[in-house]
């Protein structure tokens, strides 16, 4: 099902971040968002996830769809360890499943550590594991690879690419190569207020599709 | 009307639900034992009742007496006004207040404690009220009977409280007791059982004057210094007059017992958790436990209440109680 | 999609003031109605008076100058005790948080202050403390452990990451307290103050009875009780509640203003 | 480089247990010495007894079966009141945090409970509440607002970011409470419990005096006062303090264990 | 003055993160640290800044030197606005100075916003402005450019490069190009325990020096 954003408006203290934003997104595939700091990407994600209410306009095509959202900050629960942080989003608590996801992000041995005992990049990967473990029909990833070294980054990119091909994956990145590699569609953004300055369909992937 | 019903429903075993019902099944059958709920207090009022409690427990009384030892006048007031108790031991002026507040539904059945106020000294020679002139007397109970009694006795002896005698009030009986023991206070007006306590603790502390006697000296037969009484609910007594009269007789006997068999009464006092036996044995002779009802009470009370009334109308409930305040057998 | 989020009270500035007031009045009406029902159920003027009687009496009292003097001097006493308790509790919390030794020394002391019944030390206290100061002292002792407990907890829960930041950027003691500890402690402190203000009144008025303080609300409540002037009892109790609630409101507003001015929240 | 960091107590597991105990004993000695000094300064056996006398009397009392029954039944009453207060305060905090209307309804009620002097409602309460339950009720009323205030505050200060996370990942009510609210509230709740336990004792024992409860510590303290048995007064006060401190310790340990077991901190 | 790390050991719960680490760093210039997630970079920074104590070993040459440290998380004070967050580290409070630094990181107009009202990238730039405003003889920057779009990133890189040329700047980055562009020296790391697998001196910059 397509995701359609219609005339979305959202402002903070009078300053508009989304203004009459219209955007149609496919039902599945990977869409990369590419825009300067502060242009409104996170705000858009929050609205799609239903965490912020639009001042006016509508977001259509979200009914009954599960949303997984990897926030820009890690938002891990500080009082439980990494494995439990993944397990907690599973519909049926299942330690093995959680462990599997930790291994997928290269943290198989750090499952017992609490967030405060993990390095920044490790926390981020736990948050990624959590989002992927939750599954969902729409997956929002806000700079999922930001603080990772190139090698880990490649592994994570591959992981995201392989994951739930039937879902719509929206992904914020600041790396042009990465966008080219991952995306079916790239949205170049400016703002605030957020506007789409260019859409690009990386050709090789288009041919695949 | 409605008040009676309300309270009756809270204590159905003691009070028939209404007067009409009561006349249908008269309560005066002597064969049938009635339960009378009594609220006594820890002090002297309780001490006079120990024999009654014992006898009731043995089943040798005319009625069944369900005695509750209330901690404070508060609890007794609460019990008698809610109907939980039919009879309550109360400070005398509280009975008058309740009479006024309940439009006469509380009656004075008997006086059971005369004054328990004494002048005690530590290192001062005091033999008469006159000796107090120019001295500083410490007291507790400001705004209550002790203050009014002290002022009355002083004025009747021709002394102006505050000018001829300095009266310093302490907040609390225990504090006053401590001051007299420490010698900070040389002369103090103390109630029982504190008097017994301080005289036992320190042989230098002596009982100099009994204010009940001093009161009698100036008032003669007209009034009496009384601290405690037995009050009864009018709606109860109207329906159970016979039983209540029987109770008064037995209570009178119980008071006599306490005064004449101090040791045994003290034992019972400990049993019923009123006072430790040793303390009770010492306190009983000083507590002025009496039984006074009927005409004598009716003769001596109005003046006493009038003295309180003059000092502070609120202390008797705003106005002097009428004739029907005094219960007659 | 919304599943479960506790509504954020401060987050709805647009809610109309009228609706706010309407709801508050409804709440007040609800409790007054309950009072009336209780009154009708008990039907004993000695135990409980109707709200109308109580307010009538209150208005009567409010016509007398004596009333205002009494209320004001009680307020002065209790607020002094409260403020002393807040200051001492905060200082003590700072001390016991800085030094483990001081903690070990003062902790048992505070436990004792918390648990010791007033009856136990009033005798001793009366030797040194003059009667008018007993309510002050009692309110003080009531508030101290509450403030101490909450502020200590606030200090312990201060974000270590921010403290590290302060260390690196050489904030020094003053700035660290001003910029990190104070704002972190604020919510705990506020909770302690609102709770403490109520408790100070409860205990302070009780102490006024015990100490037989002249011109005091406690004294009036006591008299109302021994003379079984139930309307007076309710009227004076209402005075206690009204002053306590007003002071709490005032305090909260003051804290908010100060907090905003100095960026403490 | 180290400038100002308040030492983290929980952060030093290596500190030897012996030193810990040594410091605690020192603290105890300090307060005992102060007591002795006070005793020597006052020199009035009626007002204050020496620590030795008090402990001697305590040992004497401890030899009697009656002592243990009394202490135990008082403890039972006060702990019941405390637990009721904790449960009710927590539930009420949950309710008033969920609904603004309930908040408006209950807030004045809690303010009243906080501030109303016991003397004001005891007459009314005695009608419904039987004497042995008065201490329970009083302890309950003392603890309720403290717990309510702290837990409400804890709920209000729960990290909104984590709540958003829970919403997105469809935690549902149970999991959100279990995984986010409970751990967030824990420090506030703990502070309320330690403070509340002390206050429950203070108020509960005072209520035992008022209600003339049989076999109660309050009754014994009252008797000690009337009969001017100062050694008894101090001994029974010591009992209150010791039980209260022990219960507080026990409670903290329990909370820690439960907290660890269920990952609440 | 040179910064020398001698036999530094540091372990968390028995697992060593620094083990007999020896490292000599120059007194000034830019050193880039390049290593996988979780290898111990942040731990090393914490030890240099004096926030964590070494289990054994020593860090020499830090006496009397001011350290500015931009943490991996932003660690802004949530209760004051962006400008005050910068102002608070200045020796003499000076609003204009703070504003100047905010403008340098492109946040001249967002000075009145509190951290919670800023986007992720903006918060990060405030933290950078704070570190640079503090000055210091040793400047530790833990992934200062992680969540920035390429344009902003270039501006920030330039800013850091221009800033306090007399100080020693240690900088964690995951971007090879960035390292090549900025660094006088690049340390390639592995771990844990942290070890230096390669040192590189980007030639063009060496010739400059
Ligand atoms: N709660 C808020 N209150 C006020 N302003 C806000 C709030 N949240 C965001 N903003 C403003 O909205 C704008 C967009 O913020 P947003 O977080 O969506 O940016 P972004 O595109 O995610 O940036 P970045 O790449 O830096 O994360 C910013 O100017 C920010 O200051
Ligand atoms: N407080 C702690 N307790 C236990 N282990 C810790 C603690 N801090 C860090 N570690 C461990 O030390 C190792 C190094 O952590 P560090 O934060 O230094 O990594 P890093 O190199 O900064 O990684 P990243 O690039 O992901 O930030 C990690 O394995 C981490 O789990
Ligand atoms: Mg963002
Ligand atoms: Mg790191």
Automatic annotation (TrEMBL), chains A, E:
Top-level taxon in the UniProt lineage: Bacteria
Keyword line: ATP-binding, Nucleotide-binding, Transport
Domain ABC transporter: 3-209
InterPro entries referenced in this protein's UniProt entry, alphabetically: AAA+_ATPase (IPR003593), ABC_SmlMolc_Importer (IPR050093), ABC_transporter-like_ATP-bd (IPR003439), ABC_transporter-like_CS (IPR017871), P-loop_NTPase (IPR027417)
GO-annotated molecular function: ATP binding
Pfam families found in the cross-reference section: ABC_tran
Protein name, entry field: ATP-binding cassette domain-containing protein
Provenance organism: Anaeromassilibacillus senegalensis
């Amino acid at each position: 099902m397509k995701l359609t954003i219609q005339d979305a408006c959202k402002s903070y203290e009078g300053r508009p971040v989304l203004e009459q934003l219209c955007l149609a997104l496919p039902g599945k595939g990977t869409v990369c968002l590419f825009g300067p700091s502060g242009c409104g990407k996170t705000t858009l994600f929050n609205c799609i996830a239903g965490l912020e209410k639009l001042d006016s306009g509508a977001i259509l095509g979200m009914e009954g769809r599960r949303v997984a959202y990897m926030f820009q900050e890690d938002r891990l629960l500080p009082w439980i360890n990494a494995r439990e942080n993944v397990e907690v989003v599973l519909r049926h608590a299942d330690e093995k499943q959680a462990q599997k996801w930790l291994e997928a992000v290269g943290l198989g041995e750090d499952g017992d550590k609490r967030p405060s005992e993990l390095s920044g990049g490790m926390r981020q990967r736990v948050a990624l594991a959590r989002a992927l473990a939750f599954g969902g029909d729409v997956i929002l990833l806000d700079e999922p690879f930001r603080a990772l070294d190139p090698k880990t980054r490649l592994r994570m990119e591959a992981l995201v690419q392989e994951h739930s091909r039937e879902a719509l994956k929206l992904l914020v990145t600041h790396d042009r190569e990465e966008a080219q590699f991952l995306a079916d569609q790239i949205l170049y953004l400016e703002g605030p207020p957020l506007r789409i300055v260019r859409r690009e369909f990386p050709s090789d992937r288009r041919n695949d599709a | 009307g409605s008040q009676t019903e309300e309270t009756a429903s809270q204590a159905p075993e003691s009070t028939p639900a209404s007067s009409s019902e009561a006349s249908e099944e008269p309560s005066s059958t002597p064969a049938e034992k009635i339960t009378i709920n009594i609220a006594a207090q820890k002090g002297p009022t309780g001490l006079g009742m120990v024999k009654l409690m014992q006898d009731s427990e043995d089943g040798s009384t005319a009625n069944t007496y369900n005695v509750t030892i209330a901690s404070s006048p508060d609890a007794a007031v609460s019990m008698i006004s809610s109907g939980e108790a039919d009879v309550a031991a109360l400070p005398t002026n509280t009975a008058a207040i309740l009479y006024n507040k309940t439009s006469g539904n509380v009656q004075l059945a008997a006086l059971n404690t005369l004054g328990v106020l004494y002048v005690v000294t530590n290192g001062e020679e005091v033999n008469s009220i006159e000796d107090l002139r120019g001295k500083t007397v410490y007291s507790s109970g400001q705004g209550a009977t002790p203050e009014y009694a002290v002022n009355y006795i002083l004025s009747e002896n021709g002394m102006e409280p505050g000018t001829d005698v300095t009266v310093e009030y302490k907040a609390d009986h225990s504090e006053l007791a401590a001051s007299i023991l420490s010698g900070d206070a040389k002369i103090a007006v103390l109630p029982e059982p504190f008097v017994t306590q301080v005289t036992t603790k320190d042989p230098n502390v002596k009982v100099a004057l009994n204010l009940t006697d001093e009161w009698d000296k100036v008032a003669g037969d007209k009034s009496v210094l009384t601290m405690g009484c037995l009050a009864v609910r009018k709606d109860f007594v109207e329906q159970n007059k016979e039983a209540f009269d029987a109770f008064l007789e037995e209570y009178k006997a119980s008071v006599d017992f306490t005064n004449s068999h101090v040791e045994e009464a003290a034992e019972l006092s400990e049993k019923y958790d009123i006072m430790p036996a040793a303390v009770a044995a010492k306190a009983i002779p000083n507590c002025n436990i009496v039984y006074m009802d009927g005409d004598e009470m009716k003769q001596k009370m109005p003046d006493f209440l009038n003295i309180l009334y003059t000092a502070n109308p609120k202390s008797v409930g705003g106005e002097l109680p009428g004739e029907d305040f005094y219960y007659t057998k | 999609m919304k599943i479960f989020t506790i509504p954020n009270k401060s987050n709805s500035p647009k809610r109309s003031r009228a609706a706010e007031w309407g709801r508050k009045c409804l709440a007040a009406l609800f409790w007054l109605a309950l009072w009336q029902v209780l009154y009708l159920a008990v039907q004993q003027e000695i135990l409980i008076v109707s709200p109308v009687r109580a307010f009538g009496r209150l208005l009567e009292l409010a016509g007398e100058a004596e009333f205002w003097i009494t209320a004001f001097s009680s307020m002065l006493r209790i607020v002094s005790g409260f403020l002393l308790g807040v200051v001492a509790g905060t200082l003590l919390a700072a001390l016991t948080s800085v030094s483990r030794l001081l903690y070990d020394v003062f902790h048992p002391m505070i436990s004792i202050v918390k648990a010791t019944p007033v009856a136990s030390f009033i005798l001793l206290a009366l030797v040194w403390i003059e009667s008018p100061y007993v309510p002050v002292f009692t309110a003080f002792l009531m508030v101290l452990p509450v403030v101490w407990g909450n502020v200590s907890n606030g200090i312990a829960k201060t974000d270590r990451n921010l403290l590290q930041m302060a260390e690196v950027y050489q904030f020094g003691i003053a700035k660290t307290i001003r910029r990190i500890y104070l704002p972190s402690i604020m919510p705990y402190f506020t909770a302690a103050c609102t709770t403490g203000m109520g408790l100070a009144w409860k205990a302070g008025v009780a102490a006024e009875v015990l100490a037989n303080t002249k011109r005091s609300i406690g004294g009036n409540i006591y008299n109302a009780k021994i003379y079984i002037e139930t309307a007076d009892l309710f009227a004076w109790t209402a005075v206690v509640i009204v002053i306590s609630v007003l002071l709490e409101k005032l305090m909260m507003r003051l804290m908010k203003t100060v907090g905003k001015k100095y960026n403490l929240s």
